[in-house]
Amino acid sequence: MALADAYLVLRATKRVARLVVREAVSGVEEHVRTSSLFSTGIPQAQDAAPGSEGSPTDTFNGAWIGKGTPQPLSSSGLCGPPICLHPGSLDRSHLLRSIKQSQAGIRIATADLSYLRLYVPPPLICLRGEQLQLPADKPYIDTPDDEIGSEKRAELQAASMPSTRVSRLFHYGSLAVGIGFGALGEATRRWSGIGSSSSSSSESTSSVFLTKSNMDRIVDKLSRMRGAALKLGQMLSIQDSKSMSPEITEVLQRVQNSANYVPISQIDKSLRKEIGQQWREGFSNFNDTPFAAASIGQVHEAELNPQLQTEHQMTKVAVKVQYPGVANSIDSDLNNMQSLLMMSKLLPRGMYLENTIKVARKELHWECDYKREAEAMIHFGQLLADDPVFVVPRLVPELSSKMVLTAEYMEGEHMKMAQSLSQEVRDYIGTNIMRLCLQELFEFEFMQTDPNWANFLYNAQTKKIALLDFGASRAFDKSFLDKYLMTLKAAMEGDREACRHWSTELGFLTGYEADIMTQAHVDSVLEIGKPFAAGGLYDFGSQTVSDNVRSAIPVMLRHRLTPPPDETYSLHRKLSGAFLLCIRLRARVPCQDLFKAITSKYTFGDGSQLSYE
């Protein structure tokens, strides 16, 4: 079996490498045509005539390309006919011809894909960006927890981020090849018996792709790439850990807890483009080191200039800046991630990776549009204007754009800190978080679906909870909400047949599932309804819902015939986050009273309403 594994790994690596090379060459041609990778900062011959060798026409960032004698690229040695490099420059047509002529001879020489004949300075310098030393005052990021997650605060680290399609492709390609060769080495080690004396039985039966070195490669690369990679990891991580191997669970957890931020040199370019060349004039103070970093952007603390302070009646603001290149690389990033995951077969079939990626693609495009997020923030501010508990930051539109969002800085402690508060305060927080979830669904019909604990700040002085980050906000179709409410009502009432019927209407079931699948699904729905079925205060500190739902997941993954409805990816992410928060707070919440009070006001598509006896 080890020889067969090695053969399959070789074939898979070869296919992925060929795909990477083909797409990389296509991307290089596109960027050459549009000059998106050209700059004028490379030394050029001063006395050459225009159009001749060494003439200062167009230069390629990272290497000089010309018709003369090839210059050595690196000490690693490259095979195959090279694209000629020359310390001058040339016109685009010659560059494109050089690329095309070299395609037939491209070979894989190193794991960092330097075989593309374009010099990429090792090890952390990408086509656009620079390697900077980490500032002395290292910031921190509060990362989302799960039930078994680490309690450590992840230290932010500065790392220039690949911002173009080509440079990001280089990184994904190097990851694919690195994983492939790592798996090949592991398969060879197992076949030869080298090191078998120190290998555990679990290691010898696990996938050859899930070695420690490969997991380190994945975590390091995805942490630096951010964007679509982290979004997909977040979506996969809401599936329970028992649905995936322990190694994959560890990778997802480590990626979520890792943290890189983009240095100010790259962020400055985005700010100049989005809010003006003199963007600093809008602030009396701007901290170049962010205090938080997420999958698609980072947040800086700043103070408005005196004029804007007077106009908006606020001083301190939070400035969220999108990572350069993230929005334009969503589709290619997800395609590359899909190739990696399908090559390695790390995920079970019931995860329906294609559908997960389809939903992630749509949600990422939403979240990368900060104008859309600003509108959602304003909308929530209106919805909660008279709410006694929740507050929403105010927008500063003059300093906001599609890639920059400036809003009021909200004071308060993250929910993680609330675990040490009194039972009364924890009950207060849990009750209001659950109330907000139900209101978003069945009153506002508009939900902020990101459950990150850092998106809720509790202010002990005012007893207010501030809401942050509205990029994942969305509305739901009326027909979906009608059916979803009926499903929850059936679960609350313990009606198995109604749960099966409305689950089929929603699209969770097709009606052709095996009995074991139908039973497992209905059991999990009834478990979710338990908090709403209990009268009085439901004690999340002693609940067994999460364990019972967990036990049904492996069965559903094996026997599922259809992926979950698209709407439920974001909806269940938020609901599971709310349940988990209440569990971690050990909150006692009047779930049934909240459910009946809010859903009794809901109007169905046909104009009817629920009534509870």
Q: Segments where pLDDT lies below 50 for 5+ residues?
A: 34-92, 98-154, 196-205, 238-243
Report the principal-axis shape.
globular
Rounded to the nearest angstrom, the radius of gyration is 27 Å
User: What's the end-to-end separation, in Å?
Assistant: 63 Å
Multimeric status of the protein = single chain
What's the pLDDT, averaged over the residues?
A: 73
Number of distinct helices: 19
Structural classification: alpha+beta
Q: How many β strands by DSSP?
A: 17
- Strand content bin: 5-15%
Biggest sheet overview: 5 strands, antiparallel
Helix residue percentage: 40-55%
List keywords for this structure.
4-stranded mixed β-sheet, single chain, globular, alpha+beta, 19 helices, 47% helix, 5-stranded antiparallel β-sheet, 613 residues
Q: What features would you describe in this structure?
A:
By secondary structure, the chain is α+β, with helices and mostly antiparallel strands. 47% of the residues lie in helices and 9% in strands. It has helices at 2-34, 92-103, 165-192, 201-205, 212-225, 228-237, 246-257, 264-275, 306-312, 330-344, 353-367, 370-383, 423-444, 478-493, 496-506, 515-533, 545-559, 566-585, 591-599, and strands spanning 140-141, 154-155, 157-158, 260-261, 283-286, 292-293, 297-304, 316-322, 390-391, 404-408, 413-414, 446-448, 456-459, 464-467, 473-475, 538-539, 588-589. The strands form six sheets. Strands 5, 6, 7, 8 and 10 form a five-stranded antiparallel sheet that branches. A four-stranded mixed sheet has the order 9-14-13-11, with no helix packed on it. A two-stranded antiparallel sheet has the order 1-2. Helix 1 packs antiparallel against helix 3 (165-192) and helix 1 (2-34) packs antiparallel against helix 10. Residues 34-92, 98-154, 196-205 and 238-243 have low confidence and may be disordered.
